[in-house]
Write a structure and sequence with these properties.
Layout (H helix, E strand, L loop, with lengths): L1 E7 L2 E10 L1 H18 L3 E12 L1 H16 L3 E5 L3 H10 L7 E2 L3
Parallel strand pairs: 2-3, 3-4, 4-5
Antiparallel strand pairs: 1-2
Helix pairs in contact: 1-2
Length: 104
């Protein structure tokens, strides 16, 4: 899995691509925690448009980011989930806790 970022005007966007399974989720959580500590953003968007696969471990990543942003006094949301991750989000009902934004 690849993690890219952009930071502008207090908004950190984390672009996840590849597969987000149990092993990759642990690495992703660690890396995203480092990014949140480094930037201390006001907003954090998790862009999932590049994910070809996500299992329930991805839900844990999303919840962790949302909770961290709440502690930081900010907001988190999911951006442009690809088809398969969207099915996992829908099945888990995670969109009731973390907003999902689509730009397409």
């Amino acid at each position: 899995m690849e993690i890219r970022t952009s930071f502008e005007a207090g908004r950190l966007t984390v672009y996840l691509s590849g597969e987000l399974d149990h092993h990759e989720a642990r690495c992703a959580m660690h890396r995203i925690d480092e990014l949140l500590d480094e930037y201390i953003p006001r907003d954090c968007a998790l862009n999932l448009s590049g994910l070809s696969f996500m299992d329930s471990s991805g839900i844990a990543v999303i919840i962790r980011v949302s909770r961290r942003m709440t502690v930081l006094g900010g907001r988190a949301w999911i951006e442009d989930p690809a088809r398969q991750p969207q099915r996992v989000i829908d099945a888990a009902g995670i969109d009731r806790l973390v907003p999902v934004a689509r730009s397409r």
